[in-house]
Amino acid sequence: MRLVLYRLTAQRHVLLVVTHHLVSDAWSMGVFVRELCRLYGDASADPTQLEPLPVQYADYAIWQRALLDAGRFAPQVDFWRATLEGAAPSLELPADRPRPSMPSLRGGRYTCVFPLQLQEELAALSRREGVTLFMTLLAGFQVLLFRLSGQADFVVGTPVANRPQPELEGLIGLFVNTLLLRARLDERQTVRALLEATRDTCLGAYANQDLPFEKLVEALRPQRDPSRNPLFQVTFVLQNAALPRVSLPGLTVAPVDFERASAQVDLTVQMRETPQGLVCTLEYATDLFDER
Per-residue confidence at 128, pLDDT binned at 50, 70, 90? Predict the structure, then answer.
């Protein structure tokens, strides 16, 4: 971990925190901020006085390795193999340029805000239909991808926190896993039927989320294409691991947004509920897409 405090003026500073994704994830940053604030609030505090952790990351790694060695993930491999059998290897979205043989991973970002009223109406719809807001938004996004690509059968990736045990909630480490959500759409489908199908897809994926994504790729052995991500090229996220609200003595604190000039896949859509409305950020590969 690297930390640098930039003094912009006598009253304004920026704290830059850099960690490698191999050892942290979005949830981990929330843990870090909470503990940093607690220690800052009492400058004389001894870091060892934080509540002792019931387990360490090494314990989690040993547990996961033991399950792999014992073949305990075999039923999940079978589930994913059956779920993804016959799925299209790629989602072909209309692009501004031909796909390069090797992606540069350069990216751009575009952010927009959907009105608060729409956010509330979508939440109400979700409650009526017995689904989560994530499922409703995912279903709508899949319909959009269907319209843009003409493909009725495709796969979208989504990250999950992957911390099912309470003992893992206070740990800093890389727990996040990627789930594959297969869409099989029909123009005659009603919204209600679409939401039911999306709910079933998500619940099945959640019940089989322990298998590490890289192990799934090893098991499925998809045909490799260096020009695109294996199994999925589009990611959808409803961000619910936001940093906690920070209150420090004598300071006004807020997160600093910044531009990232990279894109891990063709397109990532990240949505976040806010008091102003539903914030939507699109992170796109500039090899393929212009901002327009």
Answer: very high
